[in-house]
TrEMBL record:
Belongs to the sigma-70 factor family. ECF subfamily. Residues 123-173 form the RNA polymerase sigma factor 70 region 4 type domain. Residues 28-94 form the RNA polymerase sigma-70 region domain. It comes from the Bacteria. Residues 97-118 are annotated as: Disordered. SUPFAM superfamilies: Sigma2 domain of RNA polymerase sigma factors (SSF88946), Sigma3 and sigma4 domains of RNA polymerase sigma factors (SSF88659). This is RNA polymerase sigma-70 factor (ECF subfamily). Keywords: Sigma factor, Transcription, Transcription regulation. InterPro entries: RNA_pol_sigma-70-like, RNA_pol_sigma-70_dom, RNA_pol_sigma70_r2, RNA_pol_sigma70_r4_t2, RNA_pol_sigma_r2, RNA_pol_sigma_r3/r4-like, WH-like_DNA-bd_sf. Gene3D superfamilies: 1.10.1740.10, Winged helix-like DNA-binding domain superfamily/Winged helix DNA-binding domain (1.10.10.10). The keyword Transcription regulation applies.
Length: 186
């Protein structure tokens, strides 16, 4: 995001806070795709991601009067989306536990995919192998181009945890790549 876009976004936030409906709509148009991409990366389900972002916008618009810094809007909004995602994931986990208690030995479906054709697809597949916290941290830092401090705000974790997750994720990706290379060389 360019500095000009950040300034315009801060203006929209300020106008939306004052009740300007057009500013709210423009803010949703401007930031909605990034929020949806973030939720989609965490949930791997477009429909659930859309639902999460839609409900998050209600919290975002109601919370605007309490936002102290208009320039911090995006990390703040990402944190709201992240919290909504956590609720969805927890609900899914409860449902899975309940389902597994009802049918304790349900076989897991095993689907195997061949090696990805492009390097980008390979990296994406390796990132998908990471757990959700590491995936989210990588995505916000590299794909959303947020700073460590902004990622910390978005995920509601300390900056040191962001750095630790980035380091761990990089090491895991290197190990995955080395493992992929070793397997292909055999």
């Amino acid at each position: 995001m360019t500095n000009r876009e950040r300034v315009f976004q801060a203006y929209l936030v300020s106008a939306a806070r004052l009740g300007d409906r057009k500013a709210m709509e423009r803010l949703a148009e401007m930031c909605g795709p990034r929020l949806l991409a973030h939720a989609g990366r965490l949930l791997d389900d477009r429909q659930s991601a859309e639902d999460v972002v839609q409900s998050a916008w209600i919290d975002i618009l109601h919370g605007l009067p309490r936002l102290a810094d208009d320039r911090a809007f995006m990390p703040w909004a990402l944190r709201i989306v992240s919290r909504r995602v956590v609720h969805v994931i927890r609900r899914r986990q409860r449902q899975r536990r309940l389902a597994s208690q009802l049918r304790p030995e349900a076989p897991e479906s095993a689907t195997s995919q061949g090696p990805p054709a492009a390097d980008a697809a390979t990296i994406r597949a390796l990132i998908d192998r990471l757990d959700a916290p590491h995936r989210a941290t990588l995505a916000l830092f590299y794909l959303e181009d947020l700073s460590v401090a902004e990622v910390a705000v978005a995920l509601d974790i300390p900056a040191g945890t962001v750095k630790s997750r980035l380091t761990t994720a990089r090491h895991k990706l290197r190990a995955f790549l080395k493992g992929e290379t070793d397997e292909q060389d055999r």
